[in-house]
Amino acid sequence: MKKTMVYVDEEAHRGLKKLAFENDTSIAELIRRAVDIVYGEDIEDIRDMEDELARYRSQPGSAVELEEYLSRKKASVSR
């Protein structure tokens, strides 16, 4: 986990402080949860892309043409 500083306006801070108290947690945890909700899927997509890129770099011959990939993806989604 990395530390970062975030500035919020006073009204948002009051609301977060109240919400944190009501949920027996910290403001930082509320912000972490919000980031996970809003950006979690995008972050997961980035991780998947990085894994695929690493796989390609280690075995470039494993790549498939775009049309084949889309065909496979469509087949797996429609099931």
Task: Furnish the topology, listing elements before pairings.
Elements: H1 10-22, H2 27-58, H3 66-78
Question: What does this protein structure show overall?
Answer:
The protein is an all-alpha fold and 79 residues long. The chain has one domain. Helix content is 73%, strand content 0%. The chain is built from 3 helices and no strands. The protein is elongated and about 55 Å long. The model has no long low-confidence stretch (mean pLDDT 88).
Main β-sheet: number of strands, strand sense, barrel status?
none
Overall mean confidence score, pLDDT: 88
- Derived from helix and strand composition plus strand pairing, the structural class reads mainly alpha
DSSP summary: helix tally? 3
Rg is 20 Å
> What percentage of the residues does DSSP assign to strands (E)?
under 5%
Low-pLDDT stretches are none
- Molecular shape: elongated
Tally of DSSP β-strands: 0
Helix content: over 70%
**What count of domains describes the coordinates?**
1
> What string gives the helices and strands in order?
HHH
Quote the distance from N terminus to C terminus.
38 Å
Summarize the structure.
The protein is an all-alpha fold.
List keywords for this structure.
single chain, 73% helix, elongated, 3 helices
